[in-house]
């Protein structure tokens, strides 16, 4: 019997309405629905004396309910445990959490009956080096964003690929993204759309003060090194997947490379990447009129 762990975003799932639907649907089709005790007490479910970490350990597959931010938070929590993750979209866009809230019962049936595939997504490791020492490390599914801080001044970022100087980007910052993250902030900044099952690293400048500046795509075996110019006396920020933020200053080095860890994501065969693009981006303007 497939054990399915559930991580809801209670801010988006008011009263845990859709969490209850998911739990009932999993049990209807013969699976086991698992939630941590905090959620169980609110849904009236039997408490098993487990926290979220233990619930993940007990599960074969994980489902999160919310938006893409919820998916990223859940993915970063469970990636080390190698549990496949499916997202139910309770937000507006939802590239990662791509199951519609109205399709929960159908998705539960597919899960319990094994009618799904596992899509292994490339991730990145990023580290911040200051005075020769690593002061922060993180793992990335979508993107690493290096941006100016609270003071609105141009940020100068010296960018290298495998220690070969690529360019000096003056502007609001730089986005280093995976193919999965190509549909997120990088796209809004003018970056390319990349199929998520390839291994590439995308560097996209944010509002560059250069006429010729464009995104740069390189193979996943390269190492991207970004140096905050020594003349930058104001602080900047490194934001990872929109979840964690780190302050950086002049002379700090941000090193990003392909991770040895990959994120297993549950995918149903009904939609391919291009179907999702048409539904989420190209047709979005019409649906919002």
From TrEMBL:
Q: Does the keyword Protein transport apply?
A: no
Q: Which GO terms describe its molecular function?
A: ATP binding; metal ion binding; NAD binding; NAD+ kinase activity
- Which cofactors, if any, are listed as required? a divalent metal cation
Q: Which residues form the signal peptide?
A: none
Q: Which GO terms describe its cellular component?
A: cytoplasm
Q: Where in the cell is it found?
A: Cytoplasm
Q: Record-annotated residues binding NAD(+)?
A: 68-69, 73, 142-143, 153, 172, 183-188, 243
Which InterPro entries does the entry mention? ATP-NAD_kinase_N (IPR017438), ATP-NAD_kinase_PpnK-typ_C (IPR017437), NAD/diacylglycerol_kinase_sf (IPR016064), NADK (IPR002504)
Origin: domain of life: Bacteria
Q: Which GO terms describe its biological process?
A: NAD+ metabolic process; NADP+ biosynthetic process
Q: Which reaction does it catalyse?
A: NAD(+) + ATP = ADP + NADP(+) + H(+)
> Which residues carry out catalysis?
68 (proton acceptor)
Protein role: Involved in the regulation of the intracellular balance of NAD and NADP, and is a key enzyme in the biosynthesis of NADP. Catalyzes specifically the phosphorylation on 2'-hydroxyl of the adenosine moiety of NAD to yield NADP.
Q: Which family does it belong to?
A: Belongs to the NAD kinase family.
Its recorded name reads NAD kinase
This chain is encoded by the gene named nadK
């Amino acid at each position: 019997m497939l054990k399915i762990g559930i991580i809801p975003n209670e801010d988006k799932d008011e009263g845990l309405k859709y969490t209850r639907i998911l739990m009932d649907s999993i049990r209807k089709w013969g699976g086991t629905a698992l939630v941590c005790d905090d959620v169980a007490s609110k849904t009236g479910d039997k408490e098993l004396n487990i926290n979220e970490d233990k619930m993940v350990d007990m599960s074969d597959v994980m489902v999160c309910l919310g938006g893409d931010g919820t998916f990223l938070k859940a993915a970063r929590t469970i990636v080390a445990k190698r549990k496949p993750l499916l997202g139910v979209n309770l937000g507006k866009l939802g590239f990662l959490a791509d199951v519609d809230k109205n399709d929960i019962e159908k998705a539960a049936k597919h899960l319990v009956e094994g009618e799904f595939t596992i899509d292994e997504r490339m991730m990145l490791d990023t580290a911040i080096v200051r005075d020769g020492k690593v002061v922060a490390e993180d793992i990335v599914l979508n993107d690493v964003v290096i941006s100016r801080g609270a003071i609105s001044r141009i940020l100068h970022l010296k960018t290298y690929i495998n220690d070969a100087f690529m360019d000096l980007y003056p502007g609001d910052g730089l986005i280093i993204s995976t193919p999965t993250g190509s549909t997120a902030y990088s796209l809004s900044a003018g970056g390319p759309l990349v199929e998520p099952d390839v291994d590439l690293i995308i560097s996209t400048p944010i509002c560059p003060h250069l006429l010729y500046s464009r995104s740069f795509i390189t193979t996943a075996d390269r190492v991207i090194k970004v140096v905050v110019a020594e003349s930058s006396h104001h602080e900047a920020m490194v934001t990872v997947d929109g979840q964690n933020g780190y302050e950086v200053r002049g002379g700090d080095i941000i090193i990003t490379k392909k991770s040895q860890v990959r994120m297993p994501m549950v995918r149903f065969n009904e939609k391919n990447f291009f179907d999702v693009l048409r539904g989420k981006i190209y047709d979005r303007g019409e649906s919002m009129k």
